[in-house]
Every structure is written in C-alpha cells, then in structure tokens.
C-alpha cells in the first residue's frame, strides 16, 4: 500500500516530512520537539520519533491531543490521500476497462476483415466464372461492398434502400446482356428497374438476403458501438476527482493513525466502506444504467450467435448473388416479355451487337456452400468463439460500480480486514468501528458519518455517462429486434433514417421489451415520444434524446428516428 511505503522510509527521504519540519542541529532531531505519552512514537513521520504536544498545532482533520503532524503536513498528506484514492479506483476498475478496450479491438478487426474477405471471394469467383462480362460491370458489386463498409463504420446508410438499389442496377445490366439484340436508352432502363419487385427476376434471393444482411449488420455495428461506449464510460468514470469532503475523509482514514503514533494500525473494514461509499456515491448511481446496458449487450451477443450472425451471412454472399443471376437467366424470356409489355418495344441494336447472344458463362453453377468451411480471420477465431468470450467478460462486469467500495476495502493492504474489527483504526483511536454501513448511491449518503456529501448536487459528469449508456441501451434494444437507429449530427437538420427487417419463415425472434429503472436525481431526458406516422408501409417513431455522435463519444442533442417494418420482429 502506498501510504505504508511512504511513511516507513527514513526521515531524510520523505519530502513530506522534510518540508514540514525544519531539521535541528542533529539532522533528524527537531529543535522544538517534546515527548508525548509513553509508548507513542512518530515512526517515520517526525524526526526522532517524538510527538508534538496537542496545544502546539491546531489540526483541521486528525484528532488534536498529542500528534506527530503539523497543519502543513496535514495538507500534504491530504494531497497524498487524493493520489492514492485515484490510483486505487483506477486499479480496481482495470478489469472492466481492459475488457472493453481489448474486445472492441478484436470485434472491429474481425468485422472489417470479414467484409474484405467477402468482397475478395466474390471478385475472384466472378472473374473466374464470368470473365470480362463481370469486369465490365464490377462497379455494381464494388459499390455494394463500399456501402456495407460505410454503414459498418457509422455512415448514414439506409441498408434496405441500398440493397434495393443494388438489385435494380444489377437488373439493368443483366437485362442488356440477355437482350443484346436491342438498344436501351437510360429512360428505358429506368423503367426496367421499376419491375424488380413485381417480376422478381432474381427469385427469392433478394428478399432473403435483404433480411439477413440488414439484421446482421445492424447487430454487428450496434454491438461494436456498444463496446466503444462501454470503453469510454469505463475509462472516464475510473478517473475520478474526489471532492474536498472526500479528501478530508481519506486523509483521516489513511494517515491520521500515523499522526497519532499508530503506524501499524490499519482502518476498520466498515469504516473504510463508509468512506468509500461517500466518495463513490455518484459512481454507484451509474450502476443501474450500466447493468441495463450490459444486459442489452448480452442479448445482442446472443443474436450474433444465432439468426443475426454476420459471418454466416457474408461468407456465402458470393454464392447467393450468383444464384440470383442464375434465376435471372432461367426466367429471362418471361422477364423480357413482361418488361416489353410494360415499357414498350425497344429499338433494335446495330447488326454487330445483335449478332451476339447471351454468354454461356451464365449457365455455370456453383457447388453448394458448406457452413463448416467458414474461415477464421485476423481476430484468430470465428465469431461464435468471440461472442462466447465477450459474454463471459460482460457478465463479470455487472455491478462493478456499486461494488467498488467493497473491492477496495477488502484489500488487505488497505484495511485491517473483517476478522480484526477490534484492533483497527476507527477514525479516532484503535477500537471497534460502531456506526452502521451506509447503503449505495448518492441519496443514501445524507447521514454518512465520515464524508460530507451534498445529495442535492449530483455529479454532472457522471450524469452525462448515465445518459450515454441510456442512449446506447436504446440502440441495442432496437438492434435486438432487428431495427436500426441512425444517429445524425444536428447540423444535418433531419431525423435519423433506419432499417427494419421482416420475419423470414419461422425464424422470427421474440421482440424484447426493456424495463429501465430510473436512477436517483436524473433529469427527465429519457422519455420517448410515442408518436407515429405511416409512410410506405413503415412507421416512424420520433423523440428527443441526448445521443452519441457516430464514431465519437461526444454527446449532442439530436432528433432520434428509426424505421421499423410493419412485419418486423
């Protein structure tokens, strides 16, 4: 423990003592020291080990009577107490901080390389299969992956609209390839794309893939954002700045035994708990929202293992798109006839072009995809194993803020322990600590006997972290249900757009309802406005929240909106 090491050094080596007591002619011996009561020794804190008489110094924190300290030493030891406390909190919260830092890095690496691998796999397969035809139209597929990457990294991309646009563009290109005898104007091709939903030229692949991609990317992006928020909140909350009342209580607990000539007596366990509960009252109030946030992270993690597994969606995406192309070719005559009927008869192409026919390359089929062949990526493991690991770590991080006092005070280098409650420092002498232990949280410190706590003034910084967790929990709740919420900068002056995915077959998950518990002394920014407006078969929910800007931890006031399909989970 730091304070033991500091005060057990020789008198010449202690900067606190050197500044506090001028040396006498004998080096360590002070020129104005008197002996106190028999057996009281100022070991490691006063020259010669002799106490000062109580009427010589008017101490502000430690008991008067005979003392080993001066008022100047009290001030310096108070600053030392502050530093030790800050180090204790940072060390005690080390596990939760490193959990979010390391796991965020692993998941982010995994998802990014998964996208790179999927794009490379599709490109390699299509170059081998379609050759020049693919290379001449490769920007359609490149744009698809560019938008998927942009969405994952926080871009304002509507997944459903983006995927619809991909299939419409692919239909335009394919329609020209299967009808080389005709010339198609831009207006005609735009008319062709309008028949995508009606004719279903690619079979059921676009519908299924849209559901799978949308909910998988929503879950993946939101989960990584959750790891980012957890990392930032943990880092910030662990760097506490104790109040003057807390510093006073810490000094009294950690160093007054030395000033009283009791350097080997450590604080009573219950005494330590009351001091720490008073000093960490605001951090304890974070626990309610933190636990809800962890619960939401665990639920989205389960989705990543099951129906929202982005790895199982992206690995075979090249095969699925190729299957859609096959469907288009097999139905080419029916599709062309319907389009000609709706858009009119196109003009014949020049003779050279009309002599060509649809390439036989399109008849190539691919072997069935084997899910056991899923590769590992840069993170060194499959998504399933990554999720299993993070779930274990998340469970261990619950209640971390309310249990900080207990974790600190059970350290044998800090207190005398629970078994030695008679031979411990109780703030006044070596005896049992009698006051009751306070409950957790700010409002419960109104009668804390050790720390002066103003329960009417919650810590603004901690309240900001509570709000950041609430916003992230709301996003996780929507991701769990397959819905997306895109948070935008207010400078955009528009509400967020989002994506919702409908149920497919019998894999429609049960909708999750969050029940949140209001933390004490928090403003009412949490409420959501349940207004809705029907548009294009969707409903728009809107409300006002303080949110985290994508890619940062800055809190901004924004308008929150998300689309949820009427057939959504």
From TrEMBL:
Which PANTHER family does this one have?
A: GLYPICAN, GLYPICAN-6
GO biological-process terms attached to the record: cell migration; regulation of neurotransmitter receptor localization to postsynaptic specialization membrane; regulation of signal transduction
According to its UniProt entry, what is the function of this protein? Cell surface proteoglycan.
Q: Which GO terms describe its cellular component?
A: cell surface; extracellular region; plasma membrane; side of membrane; synapse
Keywords (A to Z) from UniProt: Cell membrane, Glycoprotein, GPI-anchor, Heparan sulfate, Lipoprotein, Membrane, Proteoglycan, Signal
Instruction: Name the protein family.
Output: Belongs to the glypican family.
Name of the molecule in the record: Glypican 6
Cell membrane as UniProt keyword: yes
Record localization: Cell membrane
* Species the sequence originates in: Equus asinus
* Residues annotated as signal peptide: none
InterPro entries membership: Glypican, Glypican_CS
Name of the coding gene = GPC6
Which residues lie within the region annotated Disordered? Answer: 14-35, 350-378, 482-503
Major subcellular location class: membrane
> Low complexity bias: where?
350-359
Q: One Pfam family name from the record? A: Glypican
Give a yes or no for keyword Ribonucleoprotein in this entry. no
Q: Please report the record's description of how this protein sits within the membrane.
A: Lipid-anchor; GPI-anchor
